[in-house]
Amino acid sequence: MITTILSIILCLIFTVLGGFHFYWLFGGVWGLKKVIPTKGNEKNILTIPKFGTLVVGLVLVAFGLIYLIKSGLINIQVPNWIAIYGYWFIPSVFILRAIGEFRYVGFFKKIKNTEFSKADSKIFSPLCLVIGVIGILIQLIK
Fold it and tell me: With contact defined as beta carbons under 8 Å apart, do 42 and 115 qualify?
């Protein structure tokens, strides 16, 4: 029962995150200043292509679907490698994201005075850690 509840929570989180990416893909601008890492002079360090936004949105929604399958609310056969490795891979990616790359993102970033870094410290890194911990709990509880 707890696995089902945690899986549904992850499904909802991933669906919302994917929805944000689709919103940005179709021209939405709300929140964009807080989600793209910037250098100290507030210039974007990278330009996100529309195709990349689409891929990230689809992957996030797929992660949500994977956890909905895990919950048992929908019955779709998944390949064994997803059941064996995928449910460990997803939380691992988000825990690594929470730790960061030590410069712009994660708990251990060096650049901490930009709009992105403040949002990353308050929202994104803690959310990634929560996603990772819930994913690992789902695997351990089974």
Answer: yes
Q: Tell me the C-alpha distance between 69 and 48, whole Å.
A: 30
Q: Please indicate, yes or no, whether the overall pTM of this predicted structure exceeds 0.70.
A: yes
Residue 38 phi/psi, 5-degree rounding, is -130, 155
Distance of CA 14 to the CA centre of its chain: 7
Cβ 7 vs Cβ 71: under 8 Å: yes
Q: Which two tokens stand for residue 46?
A: 């990278």
| Distance in angstroms (rounded) separating the CA atoms of residues 27 and 141 | 41
Q: Which two tokens stand for residue 5?
A: 């509840």
Rounded to a whole number of angstroms, the CA Rg of the chain reads 16
**Token reading at 88:** 């460990």
Q: What is the pLDDT of residues 61-112, one digit of tens each?
A: 999 999 999 888 888 888 888 878 889 999 999 999 999 998 889 999 988 8
Main-chain dihedrals φ then ψ at residue 44, nearest 5 degrees? -60, 135
Q: How many CA atoms lie within 13 A of 16 on its CB side?
A: 8
